[in-house]
Structures are given as structure tokens and as C-alpha cells.
Design goal:
alpha/beta; five-stranded mixed beta sheet; four-stranded mixed beta sheet; 14 strands
Length: 439
């Protein structure tokens, strides 16, 4: 009896050891690591030495290094406690002007970081086609995203990135001036003309013009084209890519652009973003076609300034007056990551139910997920109200070089250096060349 009992106990011990070895080999399928641990294993969190994992993380905004260093420390503690994985995060944050070139060089040489930032609109199509992006559709963060935000990181019916910076923007307006003159944000082109007449009659310049930096006047085209295309020509971008359309089809974009240019501040080529922020903050103009990213500069010039964000009218159809919804900096995971399980854990932690609201609030990013209930700035709340009402369109994806050429042309258009027809002809050619070059 005693011998049988000893034999049984020995067998149980052997089975236990075999079982433990087996469970320890079913973890990170992406890396095929023999010592990977299964997700959610309570035993893994309490038994044996921690598995050592190094994650290479590449991010393009060094101004937020302190915030992400702190947040990644929280992740490391969570991963160690729950999965017995000791993570070392190797964080690289180059200058934004150099980041894209560095990243693309790494990816082309099969040295991609495990987790990296990219621009949702500009980069996703190219990176996806090149095989640089993992399909994240089944990840835990996806159902948390607002539907409109999720759409901005979806390509080929797959979610391929986690959105960080979500922007809802239109033009900025001085709330005090609007209130004093009884003006509501115009919802049609005729209402905008009426508001301009009131402002001019009161001796107030309707629009701040700051054309010293070409990217600023380009914002007029971004908003007017977005409004016209989304409301009247939803397949225009697709047709342009096929060589079946022209800017002549959307030349109504010039209606609001002409109105702005004819009713703006003097000497715009002497004013850039910094001076424009100061002028607008001090009431030199009632409106500015500029994004809420200028908020810090505006409030630095005048801490008491109250401004709002409204959609730019492009026609007399109120339904066409919509906020531009864009997602810029987002996070992706390399499909070739040797520690993909842990990389996905980190990605999901960025939208953690408990901890992510504090991170996004500290970064001053817009809420992107349903658990983000922190208080936002008034102008963010105002812009988001249009989004919640369905009065928003996704930022258009244009070929490389088109936006830069548009910026230069608008400067020349203001000085009457190019006509509308020349403007259209040049952009059509620029678009066609970019498509031909695969950009």
C-alpha cells in the first residue's frame, strides 16, 4: 500500500512538472520564445524567475518624454505583477523633423521598432501596403474607441493603429466679439457674408491673415476642400487618383477663400503663427482660419481670451458645414516584432480603462475612447459637439507634395500671381505626378 502510494505521488509530481513545462511554452507565438508565459496565468505571476523582455519604442514627440517615461514605468510594474515579465522599454524620441526618415530607414532595413508612432492620415496607406503594420482589429482597445476616431485608423477594413492625437478643428472665433455683435457661428456662406458685414460695420477686421508661413493659408484649402468634397463629391479623391477628376470639379472652394482674403487684416506676409496668435488674442480680428493647436500661444498672449472653434461654411447648404476630424500621431506595432505579445500589451495599456485618462489629460490630448471622461478645454468641447451630432468629415488623404504646392499657390493667389485656372492646372499636374511616382 505504501509502495503504491509513493508510486502515485511520484507520478503526480512528474505530471505536474510536465504540465508546468508545457504551459511555459505557449506564450509569445510571434517570437516563438520557449520560455513565453500564457496571458493571464496566475501561476506565471508568482512562480519562477521573471522573463526578460526588451521593447524598442519609437515616438516622434520628445516634448512628452517625461510623461511617457512615467507611464511606461507603470506598465512595467503591471506586466511584472500580472505576467511575471520584466520589461525594459528602450524609448527613442528623435526630433520630429528627422523622426519619419529615421523610422522609414529602419523599417526598410528590417530593423523596425516593436512599437512606433506614425501619422494616421499620411502614413497608414503606404506603411500598410509595405507590410509594416500589424492588424490590431482583435485587440482589447478597439471597442473602446469612438466610432469616428476608429475610422481614422482603419484601412482595408482593419484597425492598424491606436490613435493618440485626435483633432476636431475648424476656424477660431473671438467669443466676446461675436457676443457683443450678436453673431452666431455662421452655418452657410450667406450667413458668413452677413457676419462679415456686421464686423466691418463695427470697424473690426473679420479675419486674421498670417501668410508669412505658407502652411497657414493652406488651412483655408484644407477646410474648404474637405467641406466641398464630403458634401458634394464624396468620390473625388478616388477619381483624382485614377486621373478621372480635376480641381475644376471642386472650384467652389474658392468662394469662401476669396471671401476670407477680401476681408482680412493688412500686410499678411509680415505675420506668422506667433504674431498671428498675438493679434488674434488681442482682438485685431474676429476670426482666424487656424487650428486649436494654437491655443497655448493665444492664451500666452492673452490669458483671458475666450475663443471658440466652428466649422467653416463652404456653400449655402448647412449640412456641408462640418468640422474636420483628423487623427495625427498614432501608435502601431511591427508585424516582425520578436516580442509581439508584450508589444500588444503595451499598446493596450495606452488605452487602459483605469490609467489612460490621466495620461491623455496630462498630454492635453482630446478624448479618443469611451472611458475618457476627463474635463476638456471649452474649445475642444465645442468642436466635439459637432462631431457628436454627425457634422464632421474625416480629413482627406492627399498624395505627397499636393499640400505643399497648395500652400505656395495660395500665397501667389493672394498677390494675384496666379489665376484660378492656373491654380487648378498646377494642382492637377502635381497630383498626377505624385500618383505616378507612387506617393
Amino acid at each position: 500500500m505504501k509502495k503504491a502510494l509513493n508510486t502515485a505521488m511520484t507520478l503526480l509530481l512528474v505530471l505536474g512538472i510536465v504540465s508546468g513545462c508545457s504551459s511555459g511554452s505557449n506564450g509569445n507565438t510571434a517570437s516563438d520564445s520557449p520560455d513565453s508565459t500564457p496571458a493571464g496565468s496566475a501561476a506565471a505571476a508568482t512562480e519562477g524567475p521573471a522573463r526578460q523582455v526588451e521593447l524598442k519604442v519609437f515616438m516622434s514627440f520628445p516634448r512628452f518624454k517625461d510623461q511617457f517615461d512615467k507611464y511606461f514605468e507603470q506598465f512595467k510594474a503591471k506586466e511584472l505583477a500580472e505576467k511575471n515579465i520584466d520589461v525594459t522599454v528602450k524609448l527613442e524620441m528623435p526630433n520630429p523633423d528627422q523622426a519619419k526618415q529615421i523610422l522609414e530607414t529602419r523599417m526598410a532595413s528590417n530593423d523596425a521598432p516593436d512599437v512606433f508612432t506614425l501619422h494616421a492620415i499620411a502614413d497608414v496607406p503606404r506603411y500598410y501596403k509595405a507590410g509594416y503594420l500589424s492588424d490590431l482589429s482583435d485587440q482589447a482597445f478597439v471597442p473602446k474607441l469612438y466610432d469616428s476616431v476608429r475610422d481614422t485608423v482603419t484601412y482595408d477594413d482593419k484597425v492598424v493603429a491606436l490613435p493618440l492625437e485626435s483633432l476636431s478643428w475648424g476656424y477660431l472665433y473671438n467669443k466676446q466679439i461675436f457676443s457683443e455683435l450678436g453673431i452666431q457661428p455662421p452655418q452657410t456662406l450667406d450667413e458668413m457674408k452677413a457676419a462679415i458685414d456686421k464686423l466691418n460695420a463695427a470697424g473690426i477686421k473679420p479675419f486674421e491673415l498670417s501668410f508669412q508661413e505658407s502652411w497657414i493659408p493652406q488651412l483655408m484649402m484644407a477646410l474648404s476642400l474637405g467641406g466641398i468634397v464630403s458634401s458634394e463629391h464624396p468620390d473625388w479623391v478616388e477619381k483624382m487618383n485614377k486621373g478621372e477628376a480635376s480641381y475644376a470639379d471642386v472650384k467652389d472652394v474658392f468662394n469662401i477663400i476669396d471671401l476670407i482674403m477680401a476681408n482680412g487684416t493688412d500686410k499678411p506676409f509680415e505675420v506668422g503663427s506667433a504674431a498671428g496668435s498675438t493679434d488674434f488674442a488681442n482682438g485685431k480680428a474676429a476670426m482666424w482660419v487656424q487650428g486649436p493647436w494654437q491655443a497655448e500661444s493665444i492664451l500666452k498672449a492673452n490669458p483671458d481670451m475666450e475663443f471658440g472653434v466652428a466649422p467653416l461654411p463652404v456653400s449655402n447648404d448647412p449640412a456641408a458645414t462640418q468640422i474636420n476630424l483628423a487623427t495625427s500621431t498614432s501608435l502601431a506595432v511591427s508585424p516582425n516584432s520578436k516580442n509581439k505579445e508584450v508589444a500588444l500589451d503595451l499598446l493596450n495599456y495606452v488605452l487602459d480603462d483605469k490609467d489612460s485618462s490621466a495620461l491623455f489629460e496630462e498630454l492635453k490630448f482630446n478624448p479618443v475612447a469611451k472611458q475618457h471622461t476627463y474635463n476638456t478645454y471649452p474649445w475642444v468641447t465645442e468642436a466635439s459637439s459637432y462631431v457628436s451630432e454627425g457634422k464632421a468629415y474625416l480629413d482627406l488623404s492627399l498624395p505627397n507634395g499636393v499640400t505643399d504646392e497648395t500652400a505656395k499657390l495660395l500665397q501667389s493667389y493672394y498677390t494675384q500671381g496666379v489665376t484660378q485656372d492656373e491654380f487648378i492646372k498646377t494642382l492637377d499636374k502635381t497630383w498626377a505626378n505624385a500618383v505616378k511616382a507612387g506617393n
